[in-house]
Amino acid sequence: MSEALLYFIQQLINGLTIGSAYALIAIGYTMVYGIIGMINFAHGEIYMIGAYTALIAITGLATLGVTWLPLVLLVALVCAMIVSSSMGWAVERVAYRPVRGRHRLIPLISAIGMSIFLQNYVHLAQGSRNIGFPSLIEGSFRFGSPENFQVSLSFIQITIFITTLICMTALSVFISRSRTGRACRAVSQDLGMASLLGIDTNRIISATFVIGAALAAVAGLLLGMYYGSIDPLFGFIAGLKAFTAAVLGGIGSIPGAMLGGLILGVAESMTSGYLSGEYKDVISFSLLILILLFKPTGLLGKPEVEKI
């Protein structure tokens, strides 16, 4: 293979890695919007708290002398998912349920306020500096001639791909096969009718926030290890990108969130590789604007049908 092709493959791998994590976070945005038609702008901070929780768990296990990698990863993941899920449940109870049914601007302001509160809480509790995140999964496969450019596929990238695939598959099966998943689809179709049919809509909405927060925690652990550091603004930027991915793919559509995340990740990687990292946000949001101009519902979104 030519060096140019190898370089392209490397950027594609990098983009799919970041895009997979964006897709995990975007699921939270798209599920909440699909159920109650609102945007959870505190979702990025929940992802950030998941990353901090995972780091605290890893540090605690290291202090106790626990070094077996599968156990460390499992405990960190479970702790992050529990704390983030609890936080997602609390955000729904505190910031959304009291204002549900009012003008859409009120829940939006409430969510932004919760986002700022969580940012500052972590800022006060953990400090504003970058904190190193241990790269627990090291090593890589290399392809190509050592004399020329080599394509690197690291073990952490493989882990991100596999974990994302497992999470997406499990979520798809849960939504399509489980009783709670069918209730989620019913509530997204018609909240009032679902309530009349005996579905506990408050429980389903809370479950949606919890599921989205758990997936965000998975992404927090994975991207923490991938980037090697976290800070209180770690969730704001990633949350904004994931929201962009959800809108790009069609907010309210779970496959759209997956597709939007991958497209956004590849666009950023290609821009960084062929132009400059300074332009990656410009290209990403320009792509979003173009999609919204020519297909306002997103790539896989469906136009809303007004119920009479």
UniProtKB/TrEMBL annotation:
Coiled coil: none annotated. Keywords: Amino-acid transport, Cell inner membrane, Cell membrane, Membrane, Transmembrane, Transmembrane helix, Transport. GO terms for molecular function: L-isoleucine transmembrane transporter activity; L-leucine transmembrane transporter activity; L-phenylalanine transmembrane transporter activity; L-valine transmembrane transporter activity. It is found in: Cell inner membrane. It comes from the Bacteria. InterPro entries: ABC_transp_permease (IPR001851), BCAA_transport_permease (IPR052157). Pfam families: BPD_transp_2. The chain crosses the membrane at residues 20-39, 46-65, 71-91, 103-122, 155-175, 204-227. GO terms for biological process: D-alanine transmembrane transport; L-alanine transport; L-isoleucine import across plasma membrane. One of its GO terms (cellular component) is plasma membrane. Its main location: membrane. It is a multi-pass membrane protein. Belongs to the binding-protein-dependent transport system permease family. LivHM subfamily. This is Branched-chain amino acid transport system permease protein. It comes from Marinobacter oulmenensis.
